[in-house]
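Notebook entry, cofactor series.
This is the third protein in the set we're modelling with a bound small molecule. For this one the ligand is adenosine-5'-triphosphate. I'm keeping the input format identical across the series so the outputs can be compared line by line later. Sequence and SMILES below, as received.
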Amino acid sequence: MLEVTDLACLKGDRLLFRGLALRLAPGAMLRVAGPNGVGKTSLLRLLTGLTEPEAGTVSWCGVPLRRERENFHRALFYLGHAAALNDMLSALENLRFACAAAGDEEVDEAACVRALERIGLGAQLDLPARVLSQGQRRRVGLARLFLASARPLWVLDEPFTALDVHAVADLAGTLGAHCAAGGMVVLTTHQEAPFAQPPDVLDVGRYAC
Ligand SMILES: Nc1ncnc2c1ncn2[C@@H]1O[C@H](COP(=O)(O)OP(=O)(O)OP(=O)(O)O)[C@@H](O)[C@H]1O
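Returned structure with ligand:
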């Protein structure tokens, strides 16, 4: 269970939002909505513990994040809005590096190959990231979803960006299946996706200062 109470976010000398509250139970999917610049990415970074709130608390299983970091990070899969790839490394090497950096020690090369094949990059495994298209770069990051089923909380910033219509539908199905299995998803997106069960929506603009 992820719970947020009375959250405020300061950027520079500007208070973006305050009084924001949410609760995410197993099986739930939440879409964080609002116009450009309202603070969606900033909220996701607060939810993942990457940044500290100006006020309020983010709790995981009833314990504030600042006292729960290790357990929380084992439970979290976070995908930022930029595809953070090393252009010199291949798609497979990038995925293996991302898994190692996240502490997924049990993930071996064969599992990474299967994940990349599952996401439609079977023919690009050994291509350097610098020659991949934007959608293919996005897919390298998303391939980790197929290795992260043990992590209940998925926080995804614009996961559909640059994906074609089939990949959008496939990803929507993957996220729905994760929730149906008791996982939780928080995402931002500016585009509609064909979810079988429409996610709950949190409009950050309601809390804007
Ligand atoms: N150091 C800073 N000083 C002042 N404002 C900042 C600073 N850093 C970020 N901001 C502002 O914080 C706001 C929130 O940015 P954020 O990326 O969270 O928005 P967003 O809702 O995710 O936008 P988008 O839909 O465009 O991705 C923006 O208006 C941005 O200009």
